[in-house]
Amino acid sequence: MFFGTFTPKLDSKGRLTLPAKFREDLQDGLMVVKGQDHSLAGYPRDEFLVRARKAAAASRSNPRARAFVRNLAASADEQSLDSQGRITVSQAHREYAGLAKECVVIGSVDFLEIWDADAWDAYSAAHEADFASGNDEAFAEFL
Hints:
This protein is of the alpha+beta class. The chain has helices at residues 20-23, 45-56, 63-75, 91-97, 117-132, and strands at residues 5-6, 15-17, 30-34, 40-44, 77-79, 86-88, 103-107, 112-116.
């Protein structure tokens, strides 16, 4: 499981060092895909395959489902961590997420997210009040 906030830097070759505490869960590979809010999502390979198969089972007659599956599959980039715990973020993914040197990697329970640091700061600031005032029953036990 993935928890916490980390601030690694993207090097000039597009490599990003992932938090040491995440590496064991990623030893069998990591699938990096376009995420929500112009972030990147990183799933352990096996978790991604389960989710991708579930998404692919959606009705092919639904144009939104087709578009989602197409975008998910087309943006998937399989990565293996190198000996220093780094992955190489593709140029397309760097452009999609607006990644510059300063990045933020956050744990999102069963996957991780990679954000440009400024974009994460803006997102966090914009949604802090939503978190603080959350009253949905699903979140009640945490508030």
